[in-house]
């Protein structure tokens, strides 16, 4: 794959050569604005804009991650108003592709963060910055096995089926469990990234699986709902729980033992490096096709150490 990278970069540079170094609006479009994770992306993007020269920034997203059509409209609106570039977290790998094609045809560069689009859209973006979600899922599964052993039941509380990050993250978790243990997987259950839905789903899973050894909450609102359900049901500390992302609620759950650990992406870096990368594309510079923004497993033992503080929000 790496041998083909220069050709992709060359094609991207040629197709977008007419953009030049014109300053203008960078449209940051995320899966939803109603999440601390995406607000932290906003903070990083804003910091990068302030360090740069000439560009302005807008930040937008639907009311929920499942409102895919609304996100498509936001991208199309950005194309119609001829923005200088688009930084996008795609909520659906297929539905956003036609809008990305419109941006490509309008010679508006696109940098993706967090979630990949399907193969049909790979010609229409210039760079992708994200956690290696498969590796992150495997890391969570490895931690789960270390805490619960290799037999019993483990539930997966997921978010939006088919989202690029979900496919890698939950897929990596499940595949690692199956390859390295005899743990039985319950689920996955999809919260649509709604905390209240995750709380109700987790409550039901706990009630119907009294012998559950472990549970994995695969993104911020899902993990928060999962944690609250564990507390309310009296199962906090009795079922090994591993979350994903790192807002204040999840940090509290790590500190009080509700969560054994939570895997935290650098959402700030996604915004910061995403805007920097997009500015480089607009200026005609070559950029890598993929950039790993990293993940840290936060536990009670390191939650107050610099390695965790640098990614928590």
Question: What would your notes on this structure say?
Answer:
The two termini are 34 Å apart. The protein folds into two domains: 2-131 and 267-294, 3-Layer(aba) Sandwich (Rossmann fold); 133-265, Rossmann fold. By secondary structure, it is of the alpha/beta class. α2 (36-51) links the parallel β1 (25-29) and β2 (56-60). Helices cover 44% and strands 19% of the residues. It has eleven helices and twelve strands. It has helices at 5-15, 36-51, 68-80, 97-105, 133-148, 164-180, 195-208, 220-232, 248-256, 267-282, 306-309, and strands spanning 25-29, 56-60, 85-88, 110-113, 127-130, 153-158, 184-190, 212-217, 240-244, 261-265, 290-292, 295-298. A six-stranded parallel beta sheet has the order 2-1-3-4-5-11, with helices on both faces. A six-stranded mixed beta sheet has the order 7-6-8-9-10-12, sandwiched between helices.
């Amino acid at each position: 794959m790496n041998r083909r990278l220069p050709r992709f970069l060359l094609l991207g540079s040629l197709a977008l050569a007419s953009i030049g170094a014109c300053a203008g609006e960078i449209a940051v479009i995320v899966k939803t604005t109603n999440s601390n994770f995406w607000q932290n992306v906003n903070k990083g993007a804003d910091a990068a804009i302030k360090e740069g020269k000439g560009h302005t920034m807008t930040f937008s997203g639907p009311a929920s991650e499942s409102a895919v059509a609304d996100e498509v409209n936001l991208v199309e609106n950005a194309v119609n108003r001829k923005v200088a570039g688009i930084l996008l977290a795609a909520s659906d790998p297929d539905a956003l592709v036609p809008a990305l094609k419109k941006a490509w045809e309008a010679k508006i560069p696109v940098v993706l963060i967090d979630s990949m689009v399907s193969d049909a859209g790979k010609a229409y973006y210039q760079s992708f910055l994200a956690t290696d979600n498969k590796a992150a899922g495997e890391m969570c599964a490895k931690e789960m096995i270390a805490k619960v052993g290799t037999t019993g039941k483990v539930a997966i509380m997921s978010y939006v089926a088919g989202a690029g990050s979900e496919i890698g993250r939950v897929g990596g978790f499940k595949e690692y469990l199956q390859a390295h243990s005899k743990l039985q997987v319950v689920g996955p259950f999809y919260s649509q990234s709604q905390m209240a839905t995750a709380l109700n789903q987790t409550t039901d899973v706990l009630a119907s699986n009294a012998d559950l050894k472990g549970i994995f909450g695969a993104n911020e609102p899902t993990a928060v709902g999962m944690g609250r359900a564990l507390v309310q049901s009296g199962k906090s500390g009795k079922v090994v729980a591993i979350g994903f992302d790192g807002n204040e609620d999840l940090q509290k759950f790590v500190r009080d033992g509700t969560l054994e650990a939570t895997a935290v992406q650098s959402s700030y870096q996604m915004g910061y490096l995403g805007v920097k990368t997009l500015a480089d594309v607009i200026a005609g510079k070559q950029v890598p096709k993929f950039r790993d923004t990293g993940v840290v497993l936060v536990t009670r033992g390191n939650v107050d150490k610099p390695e965790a503080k640098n990614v928590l929000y």
